[in-house]
Write a sequence for this structure.
């Protein structure tokens, strides 16, 4: 039986949630924006009324205000958006048990087996739109395809633009609908890839679909073939509910409130990030073997930065172990220029239930210590116990605890 | 061979490009876990009789037992010897390989006697 996959995408999700929660905003242009005094002061979402004035997502708040002076600015409430997204997941689960969140405002679903109960794909899509609107007040657009990649393109390129908010793309209409599109519109092709492909004479998706696949493979390996498959509407990935269970890496990254210029300052943030990573790794009962440090320079004109990793002697879930490795790496690779953002990741995760003990590292004491810290923090909050350096002016522990994904809860 | 983005049946193609907040992930993981919760079965009267007989039998014959306990998320078993039965408190004391645990009689779903030694 031919599969029927949906990609459900919420229209200006954050702004729509705010409008649904506060009816007074209903007919006014609304933008959700981070703190204008800090670097997060960019537009996270703009409602259709604000977009009509030319407001774009990710532009600085002051620019948006110039375009749309009467726009109402709302502070993000990340926790609430997660809640609503979860609520939508549950609504979708009334139609099928196969629902996979792809991001906070996009979810895949496999309705192949639901057609006898709910009707043909377009009918199901309409019912879903209605159910989401009734349950949350958010308008959803739905791309329909025989696999995930076509559902995604159907949604991004067509359903978002038409009045129905629903579009079906499959192998009968990709040649006429999808192939004439410029190559940059294809899922998986970013700005740089677009230029590369254009230089090879590939202007639209159809050109890529008919391009000899071995040449693409030769140049980009697996990713080349993935692109070619996308252009031909091929994708064998299942919609799976357990895709969020097994984690390969746990990391934290932060954009600093101002550029950090000295090693002493960066050291503070590295320690905080290490502790946060370690705590999350312990929470999920893992240990990790590889520490990765990434940093980005402050200047946009001359982008600098690095991304390096090191393998540890034995797997760990202690903040200090991660910090020491990370700090050493940072010192070795930092060019001394001001830093805009840093991140630390622990990967090669393995279950913490059993592990090779190290002869030279007395881990039992550290284990007790971290256990005690975790207990205190889970009882009294993440900032109940912080490193003394977090109290210095470069510390971010308190600011980070109030945020999700870099924005206010 | 290690699966890659082209391997059918795997989700790597999408996992590599998605954006998920850890806090959002946590909510979904909890949801998946709740979906699979089991309700406690109601034991048949005769089944209850069999279980209580096996408990006394194993104590009398000093034998090891495998006890299946109710757990909403997974099948849970303990292996050991029943040392003491305290019916007033509805509990029994079981010595396992390296520790002693108290088991609530209400939690027992099934019990099997084991012929050979545990060690």
């Amino acid at each position: 039986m031919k599969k029927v996959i949906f990609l459900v995408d919420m229209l200006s999700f954050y702004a729509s949630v705010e409008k649904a929660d506060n009816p007074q905003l209903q007919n006014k242009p609304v933008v959700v924006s981070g703190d204008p005094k800090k670097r997060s002061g960019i537009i996270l979402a703009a409602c259709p009324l604000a977009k009509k004035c030319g407001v774009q997502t990710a532009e600085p708040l002051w620019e948006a205000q110039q375009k749309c002076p009467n726009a109402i600015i709302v502070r993000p409430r990340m926790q609430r958006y997660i809640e609503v997204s979860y609520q939508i997941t549950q609504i979708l689960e009334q139609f099928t048990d196969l629902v996979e969140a792809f991001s906070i405002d996009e979810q895949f679903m496999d309705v192949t087996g639901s057609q006898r109960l709910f009707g043909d794909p377009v009918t199901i899509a309409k019912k879903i739109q209605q159910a989401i609107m009734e349950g949350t007040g958010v308008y959803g657009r739905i791309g329909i395809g025989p696999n995930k990649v076509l559902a995604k393109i159907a949604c991004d390129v067509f359903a978002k633009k038409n009045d129905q908010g629903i579009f079906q793309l499959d192998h009968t209409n990709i040649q006429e609908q999808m192939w004439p599109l410029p190559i940059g519109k294809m899922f998986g092709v970013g700005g740089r890839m677009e230029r590369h492909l254009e230089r090879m004479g590939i202007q639209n998706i159809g050109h890529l679909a008919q391009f000899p696949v071995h040449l693409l493979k030769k140049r980009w390996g697996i990713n080349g073939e993935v692109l070619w498959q996308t252009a031909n509407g091929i994708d064998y990935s299942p919609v799976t509910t357990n895709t969020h269970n097994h984690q390969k890496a746990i990391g934290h990254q932060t954009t600093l409130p101002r550029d950090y210029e000295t090693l002493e300052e960066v050291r503070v943030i590295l320690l905080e990030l290490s502790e946060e990573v370690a705590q999350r790794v312990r929470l999920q009962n893992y240990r990790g073997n590889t520490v990765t440090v990434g940093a980005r320079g402050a200047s946009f004109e001359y982008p600098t930065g690095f991304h390096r990793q090191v393998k540890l002697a034995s797997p760990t879930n202690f903040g200090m172990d991660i910090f020491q490795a990370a700090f050493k790496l940072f010192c070795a690779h930092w060019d001394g220029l001001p830093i805009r953002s840093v991140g630390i990741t622990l990967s090669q995760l393995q279950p913490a239930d059993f592990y090779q003990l190290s002869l030279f590292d007395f881990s039992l004491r550290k284990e007790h210590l971290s256990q005690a810290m975790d207990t205190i923090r889970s009882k009294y909050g993440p900032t109940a116990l912080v490193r003394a350096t977090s109290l210095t002016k470069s510390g971010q522990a308190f600011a980070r605890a109030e945020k999700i994904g870099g924005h206010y809860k | 061979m290690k699966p890659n983005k082209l391997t059918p049946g795997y989700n790597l193609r999408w996992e590599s490009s998605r954006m998920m907040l850890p806090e959002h992930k946590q909510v979904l993981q909890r949801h998946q876990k709740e979906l699979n919760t089991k309700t406690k079965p109601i034991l048949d009267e005769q089944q209850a009789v069999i279980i209580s007989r096996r408990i006394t039998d194993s104590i009398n014959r000093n034998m090891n037992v495998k006890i299946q306990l109710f757990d909403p998320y997974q099948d849970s078993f303990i292996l050991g010897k029943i040392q003491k039965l305290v019916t007033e408190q509805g509990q029994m004391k079981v010595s396992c390989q390296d520790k002693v645990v108290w088991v609530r009689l209400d939690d027992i779903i099934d019990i099997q006697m084991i012929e050979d030694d545990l060690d």
About this structure: The domain at 45-114 of chain B is CATH 2.30.30.520 (SH3 type barrels.).
